[in-house]
Design a protein that fits this description.
The chain is an alpha/beta fold and 198 residues long. Helices cover 48% and strands 17% of the residues. It contains 7 helices and 7 strands. Helix 1 crosses helix 2 and helix 4 packs across helix 6. The protein starts with a helix and ends with a helix.
Length: 198
Amino acid sequence: MKASLKLLLGTIVIGISLVIYLNIRHTNPTAYEKSKKAGDYFFAISNNLENDNQTLANKLVLIENNGCSQILDSIIDEAKLIFRYSNLHCHSCIDKQLDLLNRYTDSIDDGRIILFAYYQNVRDRFLFTRSNHIRFNTYSVKSLDIPFEELQFPYFFVLDKNLKINDSFLPTKEDTMLTINYLSIISSKFKSHHYETH
């Protein structure tokens, strides 16, 4: 009897919560969007903290567009902004972030921006790079072996000359201002030589 009463009360609480949630979403979409955005920010921040201060393997093999191999520590002579994406990620998310990144090349030198992409087919990567007029150094790498890799979304981070991850960032295509602010902060840190002193 007590178990069935608890089950009934639990069902009622869940039902009332669902009605309230749907009512807020329907009658006040702004409040719903704000709560969703706050949840997205919390999710992004908690994941950023999980990735920062990790060190990538110095012998990680990167494949250039021409098929030649490079070792990670041979291309990182100073802090670089890395944009990581895969053909398995949301294509409109990648396009939006690349568009914003292209707009910021006046503030961040092209040589300090590197794309780590992964395509199962080399031809697809070549066509994507050419059709999007990508002028940044682009390397193919299957996995970086960090927590962000599990999320299946494109992301940014700064890789310092010691191959340590700093300022990782998981953007959302819905909030371009967040990415613009992130790129502005990274630009300022590059100009002030922040990563060389830490």
